[in-house]
Amino acid sequence: MTDLAFSASPIPVRPDICEAHRLTWERLARPGSWWNGAERVAIARAVRESPRCGLCAARRRALSPLAAEGVHDGEGVLPEAALEVVHQVVNDPGRLSRTWFEKVMATGLGEERYVETLGVVVAVVSIDAFCRGLGVPPHPLPEPLPGEPSRYRPPGARPGVGWVPMIPASAARGAESDLYPGRGAANVIRALSLVPDAVRSLRELSAAHYVPVEEVVDPRAGRALGRAEMELLAGRVSALNECFY
Amino acid sequence: MTAGEKAGPVGIDHATELVRFAEAVVVGDDEELDAAREALLDAVGPEAFVDAAAVVGNFQRMVRIADGTGIPLDASLELLTGDLRGDLGIGRFGSAANTPEVGWIRRTAGRALRPIAFAVLRRLGRRS
Question: Can you give the residue range of the structural domain that contains B53?
Answer without folding.
Answer: 1-69
